[in-house]
Structures are given as structure tokens and as C-alpha cells.
Write a structure and sequence with these properties.
The chain has 111 residues and is mostly helical. The chain contains five helices and two strands; from the N terminus they run ββααααα. Bound molecules: zinc ion (ZN).
Length: 111
Amino acid sequence: MKDPVDHILRPRLPWRGDEGAITECGYDAAKVRTLTRDEYFARRKELGQRRCAMVTCMTCADTAARWGDWGDDPRRALEREIAWECGLGYRTRTDHGQRLRDELAAIATLI
Ligand SMILES: [Zn+2]
């Protein structure tokens, strides 16, 4: 099935590469059409809220509006990653791995 809307790339922590990139709504970014946060906000400005909503995933849009990225505030970016990996959303999840935990252990070693 072809997805008629574009999804928004979730901001990455600055030390992470493109591998494992996901969308704001949680899809594998390699498997759906995506745009960056900046592209999305430019699109919304150009098309207006309603027309933009017809071509953009609304779960992604809501999530992008709710969270900042590392450039906005590194603490909020980390808070988000912690909540994701620890499964602290509206339902508890345990399938998001322990990449951040490993990265924080590495950071502690470096510091
Ligand atoms: Zn989406």
C-alpha cells in the first residue's frame, strides 16, 4: 500500500549517524517518504496548516510540534531519547533496545 503522506524525520542526537533513522511517528525512515523538521515547518508556513495536513502525517506533525531537537535544548533531546528507550510513553514498552544506555556509559568513560 502506498502511503499518501510524507513523514517527518525524527531529530537525531548529534553523535548518531543515519543508520536506524526513524520518523516522528516511529516508522523506519528508510521505508517511507520523509522530510526534515525544517522542511516540514517551511511547508506548513507555505501551504498553511490545513493544506499541509493533507500531505503530511499528522502523528508526525503533532510530535514534531511537541518536541524540540538538540539545537533547541540538549536536555530536552536527551529527555526524549530516555523516554523512548525506557518505554515511558502512554504504554510501557521494552523493545527499544539499550543504545542510549550504552552511549551514556561511553560518555561517562570519556568524561
Ligand atoms: Zn508519520
